[in-house]
Write a structure and sequence with these properties.
With 139 residues, this protein is mainly alpha-helical. Helix content is 66%, strand content 0%. The chain is globular, with a radius of gyration of 15 Å.
Length: 139
């Protein structure tokens, strides 16, 4: 049987606190209006829940996918949209950039995700690098 570490339990509790205090009451409104919840993204970023898997060398927390799942679980319980944003901001394209991108790309992309400015970089395609570079040029 696997037991969570004290740090993981604290991370899970922090995520639950934010999710329950800020997102649970907004979930139905977000679903009904279909507006992107930028206010929620800002709160995720302020709480350190954006780009959690980005290595410390690039300004991230260097957490594991298990750590992210603990956060996603809490966010999704309160608001499905915030759960999905948590997935993308920690496991989505940013994971591919950190695994396969050049040093320049890693340094360029990481701050966008961590700040909440670009929570979801792009969807995966065979030309991921070109899409990311094109996306960043637009902004």
């Amino acid at each position: 049987m696997y037991h969570l570490t004290r740090d993981q339990l604290n991370l899970q509790a922090s995520a639950a606190e934010l999710a329950n205090a800020e997102f649970a009451s907004q979930a139905a409104i977000i679903d009904r209006t279909e507006e992107y919840p930028w206010h929620g993204v800002d709160q995720l970023a302020s709480g350190g829940f954006m780009g959690m898997t980005i290595p410390k060398a690039y300004g991230g927390r260097g957490l594991t996918y298990l750590d992210v799942v603990l956060v996603v679980e809490q966010m999704a319980k309160a608001c499905a949209t915030m759960g999905r944003i948590s997935v993308e901001a920690n496991m989505g394209a940013i994971g591919a950039v950190m695994a396969y991108g050049s040093e320049e790309q890693k340094k360029r992309v990481a701050p966008y995700v961590q700040s909440g400015d670009k929570p979801t970089l792009c969807l995966m395609t065979f030309s991921l690098v070109w899409i990311i570079e094109s996306y960043l040029v637009v902004f």
